[in-house]
Amino acid sequence: MKNVENEIKKTFINILNQRNIDEIDVQLLSDQLKITRQTFYYHFKNIYDVVFSIIIDRQIEPSEGENLDEISTHIINSFFENEELYREILNSSANDILKESTYSYFNKALNYYLKEHSNISFDARKDIASFLSYGISNQLINCFKINGYNKDDVKIKVKAFLNEQSLNSIVEGYLNNI
């Protein structure tokens, strides 16, 4: 069964060489694979579920003990390793899937980081990580979508927000205002 799922994802990516994501539907994939629509639906709910599965396959997982530089470098490298696919996703109606997975990566990584490097409550950690993750993931995606930026440019933009000084200021401001 995993083999069929992998074939569906592989065929989807191959079709992306000729069409935009928004032009790919279940019938097209089923015809290409010579499977029934029912077989497709046994494995995936819809095309967006295929996109989600592909992103999850390629997604990196943050680890406890990573520093801020490693957190940003890992996700930026992942974006540029999957550049063509991610740009296609961001220019389609499936863009929220990549945006959400990027936010989730930063949120999880920053929760790990704050747990290890600060003495703040769980709720404070959750609030701060969520706030920062939203801004940083949007910054990464906006820079990535602009074709003029290369990997080093994007790293500079993201690290302007994700650094010790900024993080410490946000933690201090949060703690002083609650």
CATH superfamily of the largest domain: Tetracycline Repressor, domain 2
Helix tally equals: 10
What is the tally of beta strands? 0
Distance between the termini: 51 Å
Proportion of β residues? under 5%
CATH class of the largest domain reads Mainly Alpha
* Topology pattern, helix = H, strand = E: HHHHHHHHHH
Largest sheet: none
Helix content: over 70%
Structural class: mainly alpha
- Let me know the average pLDDT: 93
What does it look like?
- With about 180 residues, this protein is mostly helical.
- About 75% of the residues lie in helices and about 0% in strands.
- The longest helix is centred in the last third of the chain and has 24 residues, at about 120-145.
Spell out the key features of this protein.
178 residues; elongated; Arc Repressor Mutant, subunit A; 74% helix; Tetracycline Repressor, domain 2; 2 domains; mainly alpha; 10 helices
Quick gist of this model?
The chain is mostly helical.
Summarize the SSE layout with pairings.
Blueprint lengths: L1 H14 L10 H8 L3 H7 L3 H12 L9 H14 L1 H8 L4 H23 L4 H24 L5 H9 L4 H13 L2
